[in-house]
Every structure is written in C-alpha cells, then in structure tokens.
Amino acid sequence: MVASQPAAPATRRDSHTVETLLSAAVEVFIVRGYDGTSMEDLAKAAGITKSSIYHHVAGKEELLRLSVTRALDGLFAVLGEPGAAEGRAVARLEYVVRRTCQELIENLPHVTLLLRVRGNTATEREALERRREFDHRVAALVAAAIAEGDLRAGLDPRLTSRLIFGLVNSMSEWYRPHAADHGAEADALADAVVGLLFDGLRARPEA
Amino acid sequence: MVASQPAAPATRRDSHTVETLLSAAVEVFIVRGYDGTSMEDLAKAAGITKSSIYHHVAGKEELLRLSVTRALDGLFAVLGEPGAAEGRAVARLEYVVRRTCQELIENLPHVTLLLRVRGNTATEREALERRREFDHRVAALVAAAIAEGDLRAGLDPRLTSRLIFGLVNSMSEWYRPHAADHGAEADALADAVVGLLFDGLRARPEA
C-alpha cells in the first residue's frame, strides 16, 4: 500500500542533534501539553520523520526527561553554590531566590515545561518529587532565617516557600526575552522579585 | 447500522441543570485542557449523552464562556466595592489584593480555568482582554499609591501588578480546600499574601 509513496523530500533530511530536537520538542510540549503531543506532532515540528526521531531518543518521554532534568539540575546546582551554603540563612535565602529567578529566565523553556508537569508518567512523578525536595530545602532556609531573627517571627516556613516560588515561577507565564543580552534583564527582574519579597511594597522612613 | 443499539440505560437520564453540567465540564477542562476536551469527554464526565448536553448549552465554548465570565465578574465586582473605591490608594490596593485572594479561593475552579486560557477561541481572547483590563486598573492603583508616597518610589507599576497577581494566582496551583468552613482558611491565606506583598519577609525593629 505504501510502495508508491514518494521518498521524503531532501529538505526533510535529518540534520538534528538531540539538542536541536529537544528544543523543538519542548516548544511543542509547552503549546500542546505533553499528553496532547503525539510523535507525529513532534516529527512535524522537527521537520523529520518519526523513525528519524527514534534514531536520537527512545521516545517522547525521554525528551520530557531530558528537559525537566535540565531544569531541575539547574535549580539544585544553585543550592550547591557558595552563596547558598555560607553565611546567615537570610542571605542564603536571598541568594537562592535571586539565582532561581535567573535560572528561570536563562532556562525558560525547560523550567516552563517543568512547572506544567502534573504527574501522569514516571518521569513526571520523579520531577514532582525533586520539586518537593527543592521546596523542603528552601522551607528549611526560611525556618533557619526566622530562628536567627532575620525574618518575621510569625511566618509559616512551608507556606512562605510556596508563596516565594509562586511569585518566582509566575514569571514564566509572561516573561519573553527581548534583549540580545537578557542577562541584564534577568538581573533587573531578579532585583524586583527579591525587593518585593524581602522588603515589601510599602514605603518606609529612611533607616 | 445503529438501529440495534440498546437504549441508553435509565441511570444516564439527564438530571443536570446548566449549573451542575458547568461544574462537571470545568473539572474536565482543568484536567484535560479546554482544547483537549471533546464533547464525548464532557458527556462521559456528566454521565449523559452528547445530545442531552445540547439541550442545556450550545456547545463546549458556551460552557467555557459561562465559567470564565463568572470568574471575571467576581474579580471586577471587587473593584466596585467601597473598599476598592474610597480612601488612600495603598488601602484600596491592599483591599483589592485581599479580596482577590478570597475570590480565587471561593471560586477556585472557575478562576483556575480562567488562568489557563491561552487565546485560541473568541471566548478566550475576550477573557484575556478582560484580564488585561483588570491588570491595568490595578497598575493604576499602584501608580497612585506611589504618587501618594505610600509605596516605594522606585517601583514599576505594571511589573508590580504582574508580580502581585503572579503571587495571588499561584495559589490556584496548590490550594485545595480542606475545611468545611474555608472562609477562615481563605482569610488566613489572604493575610499571609497581603503581609508578604506589603511588608515583606524581613523582620524589622518595632516602630
């Protein structure tokens, strides 16, 4: 039945690497949802055949795993940096919030996909587990900063950690890089988020 | 071909109102995504036939419109309340943030659906337009509160409005009502959000 089909045109020859295929796949996952994306959709978006995709990866779940692992590794790497590991807890927390904002912006597609993961596959459940672990580490930092007297005494560490990342992660809903150098943009946004979270919106008399 | 199909069982008789059908549909839209939901999915979730659904509404877009309109009408009603219309801008802003948190919690499924709308249909585009109008109204309040000297002078009103609702709306990602009386829960969460946004996390010497 398929013997008379024309050969795939030369423009569809596979010049992809795993990296370029991953970028194309993540865009489709974000627009259509991971569950709503078929291998056919991925092949169309990448401009190659389904069987070419299987030369690079075992299937769409491997692409999801590569993406969310990259986002999560970036976030956990922040916790290992000296700014997150040394000094008063409030300074470490501030460092983590600032760097998390920057990670979100530098790694926007992967972090956006991570934030949409709902737990329908083993890969998604592992990703949610690692997100929870990250939240616990930050909640512990909040608790330590309260104990050291640097954050308000009445705060609930777990709720505070949720609200902090609710704010940080919400940037993925509207942030789109404009400048060629979006490092400066990332720094300005991180400053705004850190200022809002730590000092609030209200004007105060000069200390 | 279908003449020998059995009649629908009695348990599938349609006891729905538009209201109960809407509740069922919104749950499915949130889980599967609006685009990913077929009339077949809606019929299954509601336990009635597709043609019974058409007795209540013109189709799935009408169900989406009923839901997001309810969420948006609730938010805009807040702007018309005396607490949002009278007094210093900072107090009005604080009132709007608190009431928006409460609206999100009281109206959770409809607001959650509203926040997922991406603009693929006329109904979605109108909803996004009304969300933008709401953001502009709040950005104007932020600007007024800066001008009155009650909020920090360096704030960008538009970015601030986005961050405020980023934080408020993020609660829809994790909040699930526990208590029978979730009014008290809603008030406690609204207090936490207002405290974080206006006063920040940092401990301060007593005034």
What does this structure look like?
Two copies of one chain form a homodimer. The first copy, chain A, is mostly helical. Chain A folds into two domains: 14-57, Homeodomain-like (Arc Repressor Mutant, subunit A); 65-199, Tetracycline Repressor, domain 2 (Orthogonal Bundle). The first copy, chain A, is built from ten helices and no strands. Chain A has helices spanning 18-32, 39-46, 50-56, 60-80, 82-85, 89-106, 108-116, 122-147, 157-174, 182-199. In chain A, helix 4 packs antiparallel against helix 6. At the A-B interface, helix 9 and helix 10 of A face helix 9 and helix 10 of B.
**How far is the first residue's CA from the last residue's CA of chain A?**
81 Å
User: Cα-atom Rg of chain A, whole angstroms?
Assistant: 21 Å
Q: What does the overall shape of chain A look like?
A: elongated
Report the largest inter-chain contact: A-B, 37 and 37 residues
CATH architecture of the largest domain in chain A: Orthogonal Bundle
Total strands of chain A: 0
Number of helices of chain A: 10
Q: How would you name the CATH homologous superfamily of the largest domain in chain A? A: Tetracycline Repressor, domain 2
Written as H for each helix and E for each strand, in order along the chain, the element string of chain A is HHHHHHHHHH
| Biggest beta-sheet profile of chain A | none
Strand content of chain A: under 5%
Broad structural category of chain A: mainly alpha
In the CATH scheme, what's the topology name of the largest domain in chain A? Tetracycline Repressor, domain 2
- Total count of domains of chain A: 2
Kindly report the oligomeric state of this protein.
homodimer
